[in-house]
Specification:
Distance between the termini: 43 Å
Number of domains: 3
CATH class of the largest domain: Mainly Beta
Radius of gyration: 27 Å
Number of strands: 19
CATH topology of the largest domain: Pnp Oxidase, Chain A
Number of helices: 3
Strand content: 35-45%
CATH architecture of the largest domain: Roll
Largest sheet: 7 strands, antiparallel
Helix content: under 10%
Amino acid sequence: MGAIALRSPYYRHDTAGTGANSAKLTLTIEGNLEYTLVKPTTVGATMLWEISELCRDFLQLTFDGISGNETISIVSVLTSHASTNGTGTALTTDSDTDVGYDAYGLFSQGGNPINTPTGSIPTWLVNPDPEGTFNNEFYIYVPIGETGRVPFITTLYTLGYNGYSSTDTEISGTSAGTKMNIIRVDCTKYGIGHKVSFVNKYGAIQELWFFLKTVNSISKKQEMYQRNTIRTTGVIAGTYSQAKHTKQDYDTLARENITLSSGYYPEWANQWFEQLLLSEQVWIHRVKESNPSQSEIIPVNVKTSNFIKKTSLNDKLIDYTFEFELSADYINNIR
């Protein structure tokens, strides 16, 4: 069993057996046979298929703030056959059972990137702080009095989450001496901050807090036409109403934009913001305008397109500003 980063290419291959005339690959996803792919081959040839793009279509990721659907099961069976079109005797068979994540590898990792580290607590979310390298301590940053959760992946590639309460200051792992410290940040000057949830490079939903100011804005675009307002009947024919629009707007679309400031983070946290920039699934948690006693989770797209990694040497204090756009039109037009 292994893990597949579905945002990057993943190749299944095997060598065709003696007497082979065709190669066949079947993909069973979430228990359903979805693909049967056949092509001609010859003895000793390499049978090769790229499967991640096919499989990712079946990863219908959902998120409600508590749970999500972030993985799919994939069974791939590659066989070579004595006859054409994947028929006749199966000469060789190679079967793999994997878990697919909405993850990606980097070019520097090469083909079929192994990109799913495991552990009892999510130490793999961060590089150790230099002060914690030798004592297995790691850190996340959360406002005072806020709850949350951090993801982990078991050695069987099962994705899970460790929750923490509003007063917790650490999450302990199963390995002796390993823990994640929760650094509580006072952001009361700007309210309670904003929690952003996003699918990180490992395919898990990670929480990242923006502690400082928020700017909300609305932008619009619309069409316009010149309307004829001349009256054509009665004694007032040839006149027009000065109260009617002669330049008439129509097809007005509006977008809501949210700009968040992160507050100060250590240099090694740059990877979190890089993964947020590259994520294709992002949500913001915020208070409902219609009912301030309730919160809501809204899907957004990251509008920020450039990310300059700051360092303590070049920039002293490290903070970032990200611009998000509501992933829907502001005016309800769902039909």
